[in-house]
Amino acid sequence: MEAKRFISTIFFLFLLSKSYSLPHPKKGARIPCKRLAFYFHDIIYNGNNAKNATSAIVGAPAWANKTILAGQSHFGDMVVFDDPITLDNNLHSKPVGRAQGIYIYDKKEIFTAWLAFSFVFNSTEHKGSINFAGADPLMSKTRDISVIGGTGDFLMARGVATLMTDAFEGEVYFRLRVDIKLYECW
């Protein structure tokens, strides 16, 4: 009887020690099925750079125009873009796809935008698209937007994309690093 109790105690202590020695993910935390990282490069048309521009203002408030971004944190400007996507932060690297969509500056007091866009791939590595939408508080170091779907290699993908402004040059150029974590992969 004493031996059974001793063995039971040792077994219980063994289980207890294992439960404290292994790192536990947060309850309900999920592990991504796929991780990707890309850069996209936006060159906004400013009246002088039509040959190199990858985006243009297509809507502006009454006090602004469609060539130069509006004052007051660009509030009311709507920009459409077709930007190259690269694997590194060099604008002149070979593109692996295009970032295509819109962003709308939606707040007067601070730089913030709302994004809706797709990464469109047609390379040997990836085919199809990943679709994104969400708020982009530009002054935050990192911000998350939703991955809301996809096609091809990314059919019905769901997840989160973390955006980081990697570089910007005034109001003409910016580069975003996009770290993608997909939680539904087919």
TrEMBL record:
- Where do the TM regions start and end? none
Per the record, what is one GO cellular component? apoplast
| Keywords, alphabetical | Apoplast, Secreted, Signal
Looking at the record's lineage, which domain of life comes first?
Eukaryota
Which family is annotated?
Belongs to the plant dirigent protein family.
Compartmental location: Secreted, Extracellular space, Apoplast
The residue range of the signal peptide is 1-21
* Functional note: Dirigent proteins impart stereoselectivity on the phenoxy radical-coupling reaction, yielding optically active lignans from two molecules of coniferyl alcohol in the biosynthesis of lignans, flavonolignans, and alkaloids and thus plays a central role in plant secondary metabolism.
Which Pfam family would be a valid example here? Dirigent
Q: Identify the InterPro entries for this entry.
A: Allene_oxi_cyc_Dirigent (IPR044859), Dirigent (IPR004265)
Q: Name one GO biological process term.
A: phenylpropanoid biosynthetic process
Q: How does it assemble?
A: Homodimer.
Protein's name in the database: Dirigent protein
